[in-house]
């Protein structure tokens, strides 16, 4: 099914050069700005070598029993260490399924101290999370090009009120920022979006380009019911995502059992092929995604520098510092508006105001640095010339190449 993963070798050299270029410009040009204005305390930890070297990752998110783990098994065409499948909430942990010749399970605490893996920043979520995090290593050809992250089934009703003991949405946000594709799975039999699932989807905002929707177990209903279920799903998603356009929805049954209703077989095969083509593009486009993410990070770092330097400028030199700090946090929206006008920055580049207010409450504004134009000029130069040069190095795909069928002959 995934023979395409073995055909990427000829482009790796130019992609490696792009990744090395990204590492260099991040360390020499963007990192000094981030350190000077405490960017890592407010937004995202410092990027390390494994963040740039990592294979493309796919994050699976959904309520319990929507078929996330079975979806992975179907892609790999085999079980993986630590797999548990059932109608009840069976997956109670984050499982990173990655390639390794030696198969086994690496527990979370060992995983976050491994300098070769990109999970070190996850240690900030504490032992409660690390005890619920593991890496399953599998010698599967599929995983030579990608890694897959399975997440705990999101609960509904009373169960979701029981605290998990760690910041579940915070972990999702961390992964969402770093993965190449986010697949939201829905069960055709239960489209209700629980409060926790709503919060989880909201945590993925800002990464809309990575999101794909899968309506799974669609063979369990006939074609008339399927049409109604699809309409109901689009209506629910429109309310939660709060965007005029809804992400692409793929319909099918992603497991190795015979179809219950065969009338939609052709539809399911076409949808499956479209989804796998989308996943097929991930190894090829990994360098482009890293480039895109670095541009987004650089824009946010620039805005952050303007915000904290403006707050520093507004602080009194002697008395009334606490009162002024509270006043500035309360009226942060006005600070945003002023920076937006003076620096001609788009409103979409500013960080979430509520999160910023919460983080600012724990900082001493007098320790912020005033604006240093030289640091900003270096980042502007990086965006204008260095990034453009790296863009030219990314191999252009031949759009006329015919992709071989990805579906197994035996059907789904």
Automatic annotation (TrEMBL):
Keyword flag Cytoplasm: no
PROSITE patterns (alphabetical): G_DYNAMIN_2
Cell compartments where the protein resides: Cell membrane; Endosome membrane
Coiled-coil intervals, chain numbering: none
Cell membrane found in the keyword field: yes
Bilayer topology: Peripheral membrane protein
Protein name stated in the entry: Dynamin-type G domain-containing protein
């Amino acid at each position: 099914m995934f023979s395409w993963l073995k055909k990427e070798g000829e482009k790796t050299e130019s992609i490696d050069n792009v990744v090395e270029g990204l590492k260099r410009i991040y360390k020499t040009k963007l990192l000094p700005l981030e350190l000077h204005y405490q960017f890592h305390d407010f937004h995202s930890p410092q990027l390390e070598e494994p963040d740039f070297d990592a294979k493309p990752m796919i994050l699976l998110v959904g309520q319990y029993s929507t078929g996330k783990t079975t979806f992975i098994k179907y892609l790999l065409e085999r079980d993986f260490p630590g797999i548990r499948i059932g109608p009840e909430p069976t997956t109670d942990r984050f499982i990173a399924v990655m390639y390794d010749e030696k198969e086994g399970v690496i527990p979370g605490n060992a995983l976050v101290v491994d300098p070769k893996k990109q999970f070190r920043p996850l240690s900030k979520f504490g032992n409660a999370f690390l005890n619920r995090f593991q890496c399953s290593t599998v010698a599967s050809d599929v995983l030579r090009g990608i890694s897959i992250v399975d997440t705990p089934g999101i609960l509904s009703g009373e169960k979701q009120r029981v605290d998990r003991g760690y910041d579940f949405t915070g972990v999702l946000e961390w992964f969402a920022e770093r993965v190449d594709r986010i697949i939201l799975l829905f069960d055709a039999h239960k489209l209700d979006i629980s409060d926790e699932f709503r919060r989880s989807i909201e945590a993925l905002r800002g990464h809309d380009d990575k999101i794909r929707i899968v309506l799974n177990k669609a063979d369990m209903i006939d074609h008339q019911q399927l049409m109604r279920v699809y309409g109901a799903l689009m209506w629910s998603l429109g309310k939660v995502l709060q965007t005029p356009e809804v992400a692409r929805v793929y319909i099918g049954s992603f497991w190795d059992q015979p179809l219950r209703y065969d009338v939609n077989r052709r539809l399911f095969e076409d949808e499956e092929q479209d989804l796998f083509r989308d996943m097929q593009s991930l190894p090829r486009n990994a360098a482009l995604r890293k480039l895109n993410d670095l541009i987004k990070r650089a824009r946010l770092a620039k805005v952050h520098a303007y915000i904290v330097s403006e707050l520093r400028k507004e602080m009194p030199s002697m008395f009334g510092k606490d009162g002024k700090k509270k006043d500035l946090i309360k009226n942060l929206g006005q600070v945003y508006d002023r920076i937006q006008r003076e620096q001609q920055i788009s409103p979409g580049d500013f960080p979430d105001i509520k999160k910023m207010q919460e983080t600012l409450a724990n900082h001493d504004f007098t320790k912020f640095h005033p604006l240093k134009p030289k640091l900003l000029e270096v980042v502007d130069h990086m965006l204008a010339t260095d990034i453009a040069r790296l863009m030219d190095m990314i191999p252009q795909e031949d759009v006329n190449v015919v992709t071989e069928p990805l579906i197994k002959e035996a059907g789904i």
